[in-house]
Amino acid sequence: KSHFEEPEKRRVQRIFLPFGDNEKKDILEQSNEIKKQLDKGEDFGKLALEFSKDDQASNNGDWGYFEWKQLPLEEQDTIQELAEKQISDPIELEDGVSIIRVSEILPSVQLPLEDVRERIETILRDNKAEEMIETRIAQLEKLALKEKSLDVAAQKLGYKIKNTGPLELGEGIDEIDPSGSLSHMLFNMEEKEISSPLITYKGKGISQLIKIEPPRPAAFEEVEEKVKNDFINEKKEQKAFERASRIKNSSNGSDLKDLAESDDIEYKSAQNHKREQYLSLIGENSEIDRIVFSLPLTELSDPIKVKGGAVLLRVLERKEVTKEEFDENFIQARNELLNTKQNKLFQSMYIKMREKIGVKINYDLYTRVNSEILSRYQSEND
């Protein structure tokens, strides 16, 4: 029950004075003069309107309860140390000087049981589902190893099998593993080998490497269609990027949905996106998170190249994760992270050892031992 709290909130005002190469000394002196005025009782919002040069200057320097979390870490640390109504000394940054005021602090509040009952039920359902998945995966793995066939084991248990067909190193599998990490793992396995349980974008699963085709020069007929499609897709993506750039330049703050309708392009929205969460609307793209979590609210992003085209993004709302929400997702996120690091660790070790001494590693045995070590680490840190 103590985990279900509305966390403390801090409302922040800021005065920011940028400096160039030869302006630092003058700007530091100016910031000290502004601080003296504030110490004498001058209104912070008024001085922010007059002197500040950041995105919130016209709003009395008000960065609200959440937007200030985009600011540099030096400022965030200062904000956490200030008392309500307290004003910081000038903070020297890489590109300027800032003065911070915490205008309001809302203390954390214990949420009543009726408000969190649904969350508790969700946590219990998720835990039950996780236990069921673990049981089924363990059952499938045991039977597949006994039958020496994942296909036979899946049929006996009534599970679906997805055959990927030939995969190149690093090639993604739509919806399941667009990043290509699964194909990297398969290239470290022996023919007919069955993997340990794996975490994918769709859930947990097991893979079996059916056949290895040795490298050979490709016949023209085999690659003709691929080369042709790659060329066409590259041209389409470039045209899409240019079109997105024109829309961005002529948007003038218009609603993104209206822009899409007027320009006959696709409009989609995503609810509750989290960091490093796969966006099926866009696909695998490491640049998306960086932009989404730094883009000011309602501001239209620059065009971003993605597989098959280009996108424009607009963040409509940004919410701070509460402790109870963090607890709900912590176990799943931790397991996914540990599994990813385990796979990457094995891949890098295997490649280095294979290059140096031509060693062959029993992948299944390695992952079992590694999983045991990681499970002990998890227990120590629970």
Tell me the domain tally. Answer: 3
Report the strand count.
9
Rg of Cα set: 27 Å
Structural class: mainly alpha
Order of helices and strands: EEHHHEEEHHHEEHHHEEHH
Taking strands numbered 1, 2, ... along the chain, how are they ordered across the largest sheet? 2-4-3
Major β-sheet profile:
3 strands, antiparallel
| Molecular shape | extended
- Count of alpha/pi helices: 11
List unreliable stretches of 5+ residues.
Answer: 374-382
Which whole number gives the mean pLDDT?
80
Query: Helix share of residues?
Result: 40-55%
Distance between the termini: 18 Å
Assess the beta-strand content as a share of residues: 5-15%
Topology:
Layout lengths: L4 E2 L2 E10 L5 H16 L4 H8 L21 H9 L9 E2 L3 E11 L2 E2 L2 H35 L2 H8 L23 H6 L11 E3 L2 E3 L14 H30 L6 H7 L23 H7 L11 E3 L2 E3 L11 H35 L5 H19 L1
Antiparallel strand pairs: 1-5, 2-4, 3-4, 6-7, 8-9
Helix pairs in contact: 4-5, 10-11
Summarize the structure.
The protein is 47% helix and 10% strand.
List keywords for this structure.
single chain; 382 residues; mainly alpha; Chitinase A, domain 3; 3 domains; three-stranded antiparallel sheet; two-stranded antiparallel ribbon; 11 helices; 47% helix; extended; disordered C terminus
Describe this structure in words.
This protein has helices spanning 24-39, 44-51, 73-81, 113-147, 150-157, 181-186, 220-249, 256-262, 286-292, 323-357, 363-381; strands spanning 5-6, 9-18, 91-92, 96-106, 109-110, 198-200, 203-205, 304-306, 309-311. The protein contains 11 helices and 9 strands. Mean pLDDT is 80; it is low at 374-382. Helix content is 47%, strand content 10%. It starts with a strand and ends with a helix. The chain is extended and about 80 Å long. Strands 2-4-3 form a 3-stranded antiparallel sheet, with helices on both faces. A two-stranded antiparallel ribbon has the order 1-5. The protein has a two-stranded antiparallel sheet with strand order 6-7.
